[in-house]
Amino acid sequence: MIRLPSLSSLRLRFLLAVSLWVLLGIAAIWISAASIFSAHVEQSYHEELEVHVRELARLTEIAPDGAIRLSRPLSDPRYEVPLSGFYWQVTAPGREPLRSRSMTQGALDESIAHSPEILHRVDSGPTGAAITYGFTRRGPAGEDIHFVIATDQSELDRLIDAFTADLALWLAGLAALLLGTGLAVIAFGLRPLDRLAAAFGRLRRGEALELEGEYPAEIAPLAADLNAYIRQNEEMVARARVQAGNLAHSLRTPLAVITDEAERLTERSECAASGAVLLDQARAMEQQVEYQLARARSSAGRKRSGKGVVIPEVAVPILRAMERLHPERRFTMRATGCEGLVLPLDPVDFAELLSILLDNAGKWALSAVTLTFECDRKGHFTAEIEDDGPGMAEADIARAFEVGTRFDRAMAGSGLGLAIARDLAEAMGVDLAIRNGERGLRAMIRFAGDGVIE
Ligand SMILES: Nc1ncnc2c1ncn2[C@@H]1O[C@H](COP(=O)(O)OP(=O)(O)OP(=O)(O)O)[C@@H](O)[C@H]1O
Ligand SMILES: [Mg+2]
After folding, report:
1. Can you give the three-state secondary structure of 386-412, one letter per residue?
2. Which of 298, 326, 329, 360 is the best mutation target for the ligand 1 pocket, counting ligand atoms within 8 Å of the beta carbon and taking the most?
3. Low-confidence ranges of the chain (pLDDT < 70)
4. Residue ID of nearest Cα to ligand 1 atom 10
5. Which ligand is nearest the CA of 443, by number?
6. The pLDDT value given to residue 3
7. 3-class secondary structure, 93
């Protein structure tokens, strides 16, 4: 289906303006050219008829027997062809009228020829409406001789129609040419905006750090301002992260003192209950502080990298690190069909997300962890991390992403991994889910945007 551009499109507005302008221009040319031509043709036609009627009078003779005759035929041969649309007639009272050979039927109305001055009007002739010219001249006996010349109006119309048909053809060609150049100018003029949109796309997909490219003077300040705004924003976010990290850090020591004090209170029987509440709350605060510190550590001072996530390369160093961290587990990776896929995501964030999930799988697996990348033709991508450990109770799965939740106290950890993983997934715009698989736990990262196969 053809998608029509919306009315808010600049292209459509320009196109409408150009079309309107071309249409108005062509209509003006059409009207003025047609009227100038008709006036011109009519004038020369009339002049010609005047010449003919004068010639007719000059050639007319009255024979000795009183008959009207011509000393020679009129110079225009069309008066000789029967019903050609060109007729003449000479009449005088008491004499046989003389008519052109073309007039095999009918007669011309001689009333137009009633004065020595040449007069004209449109009359009905032998073959339809005719432009008729006539005047009188005195004969040898002092009688009025009437000279009439007529030409079918349709002759003149035919000339004008032929011209307007030609004019229409030429003007249609001219309109097409003007519209074509108009379209080309619009396309050329708006190309920088397309480039700007493409640069935005690259920026949004994380392939570029700022709006790249050279732009014309009208757009360049906009691009420069946007770049300045992006930089300023990034610096602000980085500063905020550092400040959150600093705040968390400064709370650490007082919190440790409070926790210590709360522990001591629980040992005294008279305030054991209050001590337990204090201790609980202090631990919760400690976890939040650790979480904020971990987030600040992972993102503070880091510049976004311009490249996307390259599958499966992104996972290779992580798997190597995991093998060292959990030497008794076997890590395997499958990436059939996804080799060379580049996801428009931040590679550092993506690597951190994979590390958290692989670390959990390594911690709880009995012996094996598999990482599987899958992608389909629509550009949908999934990464699945599966272990052969105990999995999790369904009720625990729902809470596993909260800060500080740990369900297996026997295993070391701070309960922050999945909370950070969820934050990272949200920041990248990917789906993250965990569920129990056939053997152990299965974590899934799903990305529905467009990947690029290189
Ligand atoms: N693959 C897994 N198999 C079984 N249980 C898991 C698995 N992954 C996570 N869990 C459970 O979810 C809890 C939360 O995981 P999370 O990664 O947030 O914290 P952690 O691994 O305990 O600590 P951290 O990652 O901060 O060192 C874990 O304590 C564990 O009980
Ligand atoms: Mg963990």
Report:
1. EECCCCCCHHHHHHCCCCCCCCCCCCC
2. 360
3. 1-7, 206, 299-306, 379, 450-454
4. 360
5. 1
6. 59
7. coil
